[in-house]
Specification:
Elements (H helix, E strand, L loop, with lengths): L17 E6 L9 E9 L9 E4 L18 H9 L2 E5 L23 H14 L17 E6 L1 H12 L6 E5 L11 H9 L2 H18 L4 H10 L7 H7 L2 H4 L14 H10 E2 L2 E2 L7 H20 L5 H5 L7 H4 L6 H13 L20 H11 L12 H8 L9 E6 L24 E4 L9 H6 L1 H19 L14
Parallel strand pairs: 3-4, 3-5, 5-6, 6-9, 9-10
Antiparallel strand pairs: 1-2, 2-4, 7-8
Helix pairs in contact: 1-17, 2-3, 5-10, 9-10, 13-14
Length: 486
């Protein structure tokens, strides 16, 4: 372990919160600043070592102290290279908010570009609470940017938009290509989940879609009764059935991180006494009864204990607190602002020519309608997010930048928005490697996953080797002024 600074100087606790004066609007500094939270350690730091920065992205960053340590890739890089680590809270998440609410008016400075500018401005202007912390800007030390999922996309976007600030970067499961109709999210789940479960889920969904589009009121009511729901809108019913499938995203190879809820759902469909369903599944009748029994006996009581399914799953009440709650630290609202405006990523049913585990009643307009409820001042009618403009601005799948490492997982439901998407064939190069393991979503960020899965260990090893090679070549650039650094 690197010596932590001068003799006798103790490291502050990892959960020590620091504050940086961040510009509200990088296009108009006269608007002033807000307090942006960050966490930091120099446990492994040696003079000349890199500064390793991450943002957790669309969440409150308090509690992400492990990303300062070597249980994550961030700390592994810092330990290997003698660096310091930082976790920076993304604007409009947690308590890094320019204003006292998340109203539409307040959110006007919540954009991808402003977030990129935050990272750049922070790197060039922060005085870190560590030995020599006033002299580790990108002019004087190499900075490494790391992010996963949306933050992985932000990592790629920042390398494109601010090529001088971060010498090297690691994008884990980076959703670099903004896609409005991301039906491929569930297609990855369909093809990688237990195939008997997949077949039975497909059979049930196909049947429900047929009934719901038939106009036969008695048959529709029978389905609702089986699942113990009486929702006014059939697309809300269909959307509710997606919920157990979202649990796939929580899976990890490590027994310490794995969630079992997804497999509990599949077991409810496929395990009958001592028998397990065949490869092709049990078939519609068994699957429909098994799913509805699981739903009424296990799922509904846990998520909707008061029995008001309209409050639990209904999306047509514009007065719902889900749409009207503008208090800070409401991550769902902050994230919806980005997806409604700039990225999309609506996880829907597959096209008619593709098998689907999600109802085709769920299409982008289902989410776009909810954008009008959440932000009526911005959207008077449902409209498509500006995904194409985002891809054009930051290069999406077609990014070409030096010292940018992409790490992806074959079983990641977000993979179709990454550079390892099905149907793409992007070349891995020495300066922009693309490493694909058998992992799930952001699996490579956790050291323990590499211990559990050799393919993830390989991804991590490739990334660490690239960082070592790249950082060995770093030379201090010509110093930038504070104004230029903005």
């Amino acid at each position: 372990m690197a010596c932590p600074g001068p003799p006798g100087e103790r490291l502050p606790p990892l959960d020590t919160t620091y504050y940086f004066d961040q510009l509200i609007d990088h296009d108009d500094p006269s608007l002033g600043t807000f307090k942006q939270r960050y966490w930091h350690t120099w446990e492994f730091y040696e003079p000349g070592g890199p500064i390793v920065l991450t943002t957790p992205g669309e969440t409150n960053a308090d509690g992400y102290e492990s990303f300062l340590t070597n249980v994550t890739v961030n700390g592994m890089i810092a330990q290997q290279q003698g660096g310091a680590t930082i976790v920076l809270e993304h604007r409009y998440y947690g308590y890094s908010n320019p204003y006292s609410d998340l109203s539409t008016e307040s959110l006007r400075y919540h954009t991808i570009q402003q977030a990129i500018d935050d990272l750049d401005y922070f790197a060039y202007n922060v005085v870190l609470p560590m030995p020599n912390g006033a002299h580790v800007t990108p002019d004087e030390a190499p900075w490494v940017l790391i992010g996963g999922s949306y933050a992985g996309a932000l990592t790629s976007f920042t390398k494109v938009n601010k090529p001088d600030a971060f010498y090297a970067a690691w994008s884990s499961s980076g959703v670099v290509e903004s896609i409005v109709d991301l039906w491929g999210y569930f297609d990855v789940v369909r093809t990688h989940m237990p195939q008997n479960c997949s077949a039975d889920v497909q059979a049930v969904i196909a049947h429900i879609d047929e009934v719901f589009t038939s106009g036969n009121a008695a048959d529709i009511e029978q389905i609702q009764d089986m699942f113990g729901m009486s929702l006014a809108h059939l697309d809300d019913f269909a959307a509710a059935l997606r919920e157990p499938l979202f649990w796939w995203q929580d899976l990890q190879p490590s027994p310490y991180l794995s969630e079992t809820a997804f497999f509990d759902f599949c077991d409810a469909l496929e395990v009958e006494g001592d028998e397990i369903g065949p490869a092709a599944g049990w078939g519609l009748d068994h699957a429909l009864n098994a799913w509805s029994s699981y739903w009424t006996g296990t799922y509904l009581p846990s998520v909707c204990p008061d029995g008001d399914d309209e409050s639990c799953f209904g999306t047509y009440d514009a007065s719902s607190s889900r749409y009207t709650d503008t208090s800070v630290n409401n991550a769902e609202r902050s994230w919806y602002w980005i997806v409604c405006n700039e990225m999309g990523f609506f996880q829907d049913g597959a096209p008619n020519d593709t098998e689907t585990i999600v109802s085709r009643l769920i299409q982008p307009v289902y989410d776009e309608r909810q954008c009008t409820y959440m932000f009526p001042e911005a959207f008077s009618a449902p409209q498509s997010p500006r995904a194409s403009a985002t891809n054009e601005a930051y290069d999406g799948w077609f990014v070409q930048d030096d010292r940018l490492f992409f790490a992806n997982g074959q079983r990641d439901p977000w993979r179709d928005a990454t550079v390892s998407a099905d149907g793409t064939n992007f070349t891995s190069t020495a300066m922009q490697p693309i490493a694909l393991g058998d992992g799930f979503h952001v699996s490579d960020l956790y050291a323990v996953n590499g211990e559990a899965d050799p393919t993830i260990a390989s991804v991590q090893a490739q990334g660490l080797a690239a960082m070592k090679d790249w950082l060995a070549d770093w030379e201090a650039p010509q110093k930038r002024s504070v104004i230029e650094g903005r």
